[in-house]
Amino acid sequence: LEAMGVPYEVLSEDWRPQLERCLDDMKEGARPVALVVPKDIFGSYAFAAEDNGALMSREEALEAVLDGLGDDDFIVSTTGKTSREIFEIRERRGQGHANDFLTVGGMGHTSSIAFGMAIGTDKDVWCVDGDGSFLMHMGAFSVIAQNAPANFKYILNNNGAHESVGGQPTVGQRIDVPAILKASGFERVIEASTSEDISSGMEVLAKNAKTALVITTHQGSRGDLGRPTTAPQENKAAMMEKFARCRQGA
């Protein structure tokens, strides 16, 4: 903020005069002013989760997805709890993380990253996206659907919420996502709500191009869900090494 010349206040308990100074500065200077909020300064606020009738949690769905992958299949997973759950599932299973690209802090970019990776290998690249991410960069899907190679495999988990940042609702379950994917160029969209649906759907995706799998899950995650214990740079380096070996046929 200082480098960009943006005046700011760091929010404290004495917040009223801070807000007044920010407002005065905005009015007088006709410019934006930043209010920096430190971690844990706000109390918790629980959003009321919408009951969509789904039987599976996202983590249960991800367990089923990982069950259907081969040793040389790659995952690109969306930011937030999806990537955190994939990391912990791998840890519980004693598996490494070299096959997984956890898209940290890049909501909406997951599908484009997976698309780029799929162009660079003949191995299957599974994009595990979320409804918030899908909605954010929906414009990418017409390009992806028209140009993706057969090894690009798209999975969308739709729970109707930005759960990783508090549970704010999306419109993901109020619009026809399969119709949007088909209109973009996916030839077939499979819908799933159980582990069996996911397993059979992934078998179809593995054998067919321009096919997507849309999974409906309910909101909610474990209270003790952790974060990856390895740095993003470590994950990137491990995956790039595995990616290079696969390209060389090792």
Task: Report on this structure.
The protein is of the alpha/beta class and 250 residues long. The protein folds into two domains: 1-43, no CATH class; 58-244, Rossmann fold. Helix content is 40%, strand content 16%. The protein has helices at residues 15-29, 58-67, 81-93, 110-119, 131-136, 140-147, 177-184, 195-207, 232-247, and strands spanning 8-10, 34-36, 74-77, 100-102, 125-130, 152-158, 161-162, 168-169, 188-192, 211-216. Strands 4-3-5-6-10-9 form a six-stranded parallel sheet, sandwiched between helices. It has a two-stranded parallel sheet with strand order 1-2. The protein is globular.
Secondary structure elements and pairings:
Elements (H helix, E strand, L loop, with lengths): L7 E3 L4 H15 L4 E3 L21 H10 L6 E4 L3 H13 L6 E3 L7 H10 L5 E6 H6 L3 H8 L4 E7 L2 E2 L5 E2 L7 H8 L3 E5 L2 H13 L3 E6 L15 H16 L3
Helix pairs in contact: 2-3, 2-8
Q: Would you count the extended β strands for me? A: 10
Please give the domain count.
2
Largest sheet: 6 strands, parallel
Helix count, DSSP H or I runs of 4 or more residues: 9
What class, by secondary structure content? alpha/beta
As a percent range, the share of strand residues is 15-25%
Q: Which parts are unreliable, with pLDDT below 50 for 5 consecutive residues or more?
A: none
How far apart are the termini? 47 Å
Question: What series of H and E elements makes up the topology?
Answer: EHEHEHEHEHHEEEHEHEH
For the record, the CATH class of the largest domain is Alpha Beta
Radius of gyration: 21 Å
Strand order of the largest sheet: 4-3-5-6-10-9
